[in-house]
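Below is how a single chain appears once it has passed through the pipeline. First comes the sequence as given, then the structure the pipeline wrote out for it. We keep one example in the README because the format questions we get most often are answered faster by looking than by reading.
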Amino acid sequence: MKELDQKALFWIAAASILFMELLIFGGWGIAVPISVIIYYILILSQNKTIRIKRNVLLLIPIIMISLCFVFFDNMLLKFLNVIFLYGLIVLDTSEQFKVNKFEFLSLEWIMQVVPIGIIKPIKNILAPIRLIRDDGKDKYRKFFNIFWKILIGLLVGLPIVFIATILLMRSDIAFKNVIDLINDNLSFNFFAIIKRIAVFTIIYFPLCGYFYGVKNKEKENCNEENKQIKIKFDFTIVITATSFLCTIYVMYCLAKFTYLISSFMGILPAEYTFSEYARQGFFECVPLVSINLFFIIVLDLFTKVNDSKKKRIITKGFIYYLIAFTLFLVISALSKMILYINAYGITLMRVYIAWILILGFIILLLIGIKEYNNKFKLIRNVFIAFTIMFLGLNYINVDYRIAKYDADLYIAGKVDTIDAFKDLSNSALEPLMEVSRTGDKKTLLLKRYENRLEEKEKWQDWNVVTYKAKKILENEKIN
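Resulting structure:
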């Protein structure tokens, strides 16, 4: 454990307190980019340098995702941003400390998020205790042993005492009055301190384990590429199964040709509503895309061709067929969704589904390029495409765009509902105010937005959207 010293434990403890106050007891607005800056200061304290040139493909999205918490307020995207940001930071940290031995932006390299960012922090969770026990000077070792034992006893005992106190307060009014009297006369909140100690522990020990994992390079990664098991299926078996699947697809297209292409012409089949047509298009697309991707992977990676040029041509032919059919399914599902949007406006769910379909279309195109050019870096380009698409979904300010589009449709009399506003963030307030000036159906919605804004009082939760929304409401009250 020589690479993680007691000075490092102090810096990690300081960072843990800041993360706790900024994020856990603060908010997920401007506190997020501040926390990212603190994290990289912590990296600098441990690594003495930050590699920028090589890691620019990671650092740029890290910065942009962090700033999303300042500019936008969509709750689902915030949740996904936290997961994606954590993954990017773990991968960047693995490069900063040179612990990821795989090729940059390869599948194996990306998958190191799991051992580095999840398994090692848990595996090394007791690293600070072992460090002080083993590396402390002799005259301090006894003191630190006693200190850590007391601390562990407090951490184990405080939650139990807390639960027991709550139960006793509920069962006896006299005891409850005594505890309330003590709490009222103390200048600090006892329960808040207990809560902070618990949260600090949950952050601090895994964070120590995380840095111990990245600072102590293990040899297990070096030979991992040689451990891959080569599984190959018989060519005849795979081609037979694929041929049956492709035949079924041809029969399906011939039987439902009108159904499949009607959406391209903007025509709704008589037996469907717009919602049923769009929903069926998506839910028939997803399982078929999954099946086709499975067959494409088997044909490309797990089929014995024995260096036979003829067999390679046959497998390539089936792969191209499956890619083309899958692209057709995705485009068909997307066109049905567009038909639905044109009829009833946009909602968040419709945008997310359209985004998934567009991303699937791009990935299928990249797979096709990989089949044509074997030197094409598929995983690298899929990662870049996903990152660009994900950043685009954030930076188009989807809530505002939806609100503006639906507000214009409502004002023009093309739709008779503004229910989509119920699920939108505070970005939708400005278009909602435009609707409110035309007549009815807005008092309850405006009240909902006002209540939501009143909940955001902590400075850590500040973002541009909330600031603008409060200004809009203030101006409206003045007028």
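The CA atoms of residues 134 and 141 lie 8 Å apart.

See the next section for the split statistics.
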